[in-house]
Design goal:
The chain has 405 residues and is of the alpha/beta class. It has twelve helices and 14 strands. The chain folds into three domains: 141 residues, HUPs (Rossmann fold, 3-Layer(aba) Sandwich); 138 residues, Argininosuccinate synthetase, chain A, domain 2; 37 residues. The protein starts with 6 loop residues before the first strand and ends with a helix.
Length: 405
């Protein structure tokens, strides 16, 4: 197999695991390794990955700022669908993988590489997401997943391999974090350590993006979000790009203790997994989007979207972003959003997001003259409700009569 692979593109973070993978690929496959490092808003400097890759003999190094593309083409379309997996998870890790897979394949084409590689383990969802994406975009691509091939299946073996091959081991002050973390513009996730016991409460100092709700300011923060075609385009009247919107909402939400979640979820590979997440911007975006849809979407359109949402969310969670069924659903969802225009006013207070106002000058279906409890001046004939109720009760009455017999 090693003779067949001449060049491989590695999704490279610059951390210990992917640095070991880089060296392992060079040794086991005898191939040239091209590294790809993406900035999708993880909040850490990505440029040091260049020096680390160079130190390991890499000649072709790709470092790309993908924050705007990530927000515009992946996160925003997903939030048009109000996607939530299993009622709680806002899909922060899941939605980043199709973009990384896309870039891996494109760089493979640019450099003439005949394989791509990633650092996802054989127990998790990410291996599925990376590889389904790669195969959907380049059917004949070869994928190398070191965690499914090597015997470096413990922290001790990884550290020993790094020491033997002279791979720098960075020790953070206070020791290594006990958690496995993943971050991007949408969220930061935590797994491992004490979180492997679903009864154990997360340690207070684990959280990085948000203050504890009980420590949030006593004064509420009010914000106004402007929508066009289902997407936020401004905060408090200031026009911003998708990435800028998410950065701002993360800061506002985090400062008010918003976005923390503790979940046990069902992985695609079959096991249950406990993870904690901070998703300040996503929590605000979901609440606000449902609010603007509540006055602009037709009832049956809104209900149909809600019925389809779990399927859409599962497709993203399981790695099927590039599938024909997800694309089909996206076209329908996007078509529904042409009327989702207007403004939403929110109150952020001690971990809560409360909708306190919503308006749409051009697309509101809310008619105060009909909905009022005051005199509607003939806009709605309440006597019409009697026939409506009797027609809808007909089957119930027939069944009841039969039961009595």
């Amino acid at each position: 197999m090693s003779k067949q692979i001449k060049k491989v593109v590695l999704a490279y973070s610059g951390g210990l695991d992917t640095s070991i993978i880089l060296k392992w690929l060079q040794d086991e496959y005898g191939c040239e390794v091209v590294t790809f490092t993406a900035d999708i808003g993880q909040g850490e400097e990505v440029e040091p990955a260049r020096a680390k890759a160079q130190a390991l003999g890499v000649k072709q190094i790709f470092i790309e700022d993908l924050r705007e593309e990530f927000a515009r083409d992946y996160v925003f379309p997903m939030f048009r669908a109000n996607a939530v997996y299993e009622g709680e998870y806002l899909l922060g890790t899941s939605i980043a993988r199709p973009l990384i897979a896309k870039r891996l394949v494109k760089i493979a084409d640019q450099t003439g590489a005949d394989a791509v590689s990633h650092g996802a383990t054989g127990k998790g969802n990410d291996q599925v997401r990376f590889e389904l994406g790669a195969y959907a975009l380049k059917p004949d691509i070869h994928v190398i997943a070191p965690w499914r091939e090597w015997d470096l299946n413990s922290r001790e073996k990884l550290l020993a391999y790094a020491e033997h091959h002279g791979i720098p081991i960075e020790q953070k002050r206070g020791g290594k974090s006990p958690y496995s973390m993943d971050a991007n513009l949408l969220h930061i996730s935590y797994e491992g350590g004490i979180l492997e016991d679903p009864w154990a409460e997360p340690e207070p100092d684990m959280w990085r993006w948000s203050v504890a709700p009980e420590q949030a300011p006593d004064q509420a923060t009010y914000i106004e979000l402007s929508y066009r075609n289902g997407d936020i385009v401004a905060i408090d009247g200031e026009q911003l790009t998708p990435a800028q919107i998410m950065i701002n909402l993360n800061q506002l939400g985090g400062a008010n203790g918003i976005g923390r979640d503790d979940i046990v979820e069902n992985r695609y590979v079959g096991m249950k997994s406990r993870g904690c997440y901070e998703t300040p911007a996503g929590t605000i975006m979901l609440k606000a989007h449902r609010a603007i849809e509540s006055i602009t979407l037709d009832r049956e359109v809104a209900h149909l979207k809600d019925e389809l949402m779990p399927r859409y969310a599962t497709l993203i969670y399981n790695g099927y972003w590039w599938s024909p069924e997800r694309r089909m659903l996206q076209q329908m969802i996007d078509a529904s959003q042409t009327v989702v225009n207007g403004r939403v006013r929110l109150k952020l207070y001690k971990g809560n997001v409360t909708v306190v106002g919503r308006t749409s000058e051009s697309n509101s279906l809310f008619d105060a003259s009909i909905a009022t409890f005051e005199d509607d001046e003939g806009a709605y004939d309440q006597q019409d409700a009697e026939g409506f109720i009797k027609l809808n009760a007909l089957r119930l009455r027939i069944a009841a009569r039969l039961q009595r017999k």
